[in-house]
Design brief:
This protein is of the alpha/beta class. It contains 15 helices and 13 strands. It has three domains: 94 residues, NadA-like (Rossmann fold, 3-Layer(aba) Sandwich), CATH 3.40.50; 124 residues, 3-Layer(aba) Sandwich (Rossmann fold), CATH 3.40.50.10800; 79 residues, Rossmann fold (3-Layer(aba) Sandwich). The N terminus and C terminus are likely disordered.
């Protein structure tokens, strides 16, 4: 198996310098769950609001979004849906950068979240000030950032990409002779660099969920299920990606389960996605890729602790009193919109489906 990325990774900050909260799953009795669901449905109507939820949130929230005319998808498609929907308020069940992206693309709308403390390890691992200084040290490079970054980091970038669009964008930039400064996910950056051969300088951050998937334990699991196809998100380590039958975004993984002829699938991404996969392909057998085993820390155990901070109680409270509103400084939002819209224009020019087929 290949070694983990090195050499091109620049360690600007010590890795994982932030606090990772414990994963706390909301536990509700049936009576309270029913009451909250009915209250939220009424509040969505009262507030002229629509609920958009990420694939990694609790199935309860994903189901509620579907039932109320909302949307379940990746972060960019969530923002797109909010832009096209006539509702005046967007309720974003996900993590903070997703709410910011929705606000940037929908400045005229109110954007609420169940919990503003729901962060992302990639966002936290790429502070705006340190990143800006890093960019200043390499003025000859085109700055490409992943969607999993703050509005302030996007404001410093030339391009924003998703996991489903990154390869095409980087191939395009390489063809133009560009050298690239990439942030924040070192594993996704390493995968793109390997696939494209582009000259890329990588920021040193990782998703705590995908980083925990284990190459050795995956090989052992594959031996136990020799007919299973392995589907991997590209934020995973190279030792995991090298064993994949398919590497792609959340939407891409869902589509792969639907379309590939296999019956069993080993899936290396946040297990929140299993809800939508089971809807799309109820006859398929889904197996979680291993996060435990030799040298395991299991800080996330294949589920983002920040995504787990979203729940029915917090969602109802946000709608009830208009709390947890996402606000983005107007100047930062204006600058951050440039790399986002550049991606959207590029996708239109390339006749590439960006919305709904990529994740963040």
């Amino acid at each position: 198996m290949p070694a983990e990325p090195h050499g091109t990774v620049t360690a600007v900050l010590p890795p994982q310098t932030f606090h990772v909260p414990p994963t706390v799953v909301e536990v509700l009795g049936e009576e309270e769950r029913h009451a909250l669901r009915e209250e939220i449905k009424a509040l969505l109507v009262r507030e002229n609001a629509v609920l958009v939820a990420h694939y990694y949130t609790d199935p309860e929230l994903q189901a509620l979004a579907d039932e109320t005319g909302g949307h379940v998808s990746d972060s960019l498609d969530m923002a797109r849906f909010g832009h096209e929907h006539p509702a005046r308020t967007l309720v974003v069940a996900g993590v903070r950068f997703m709410g910011e992206t929705a606000k940037i693309l929908n400045p005229e709308k109110r954007v609420l979240m169940p919990d503003l403390k729901a962060e992302c390890s990639l966002d936290l691992g790429c502070p705006a000030d340190a990143f800006a200084a890093f960019c200043d040290q390499h003025p000859d490079r085109t700055v490409v950032v992943y969607a999993n970054t703050s509005a302030a980091v996007k404001a410093r970038a030339d391009w924003m990409v998703t996991s489903g669009s990154a390869l095409e964008v980087v191939r395009h930039l390489k063809a133009e002779g560009r050298k690239i400064l990439w942030a924040p996910d070192k594993y996704l950056g390493h995968y793109i660099q390997e696939q494209t051969g582009a000259d890329m300088l990588l920021w040193n951050a990782a998703c705590i969920v995908h980083e925990e998937f284990k190459g050795q334990e995956l090989a052992e699991l594959r031996a136990q299920h020799p007919d299973a196809k392995v589907l991997v998100h590209p934020e995973s380590p190279p030792s995991v990606i090298s064993q994949a039958d398919f590497v792609g975004s959340t939407s891409g993984i869902i589509k792969a389960v639907e379309t590939l002829p296999a019956r069993q699938f080993i899936i290396a991404t946040d297990k929140g996605i299993f809800y939508k996969i089971r809807q799309a392909a109820p006859d398929k057998v889904l197996i979680e890729a291993p996060t435990a085993g030799h040298s395991a820390t299991c800080r996330s155990c294949a589920h983002c602790p920040w995504m787990a901070m979203n729940g029915l109680r917090k969602l109802a409270a946000a709608l009830r009193d208009g709390s947890n509103e996402i606000l983005v400084d107007a100047k930062i939002a204006q600058r951050a919109a440039v790399p986002i819209k550049r991606l959207l224009d590029f996708s239109a020019d390339q006749h590439t489906v960006i919305y709904g087929n990529n994740d963040a």
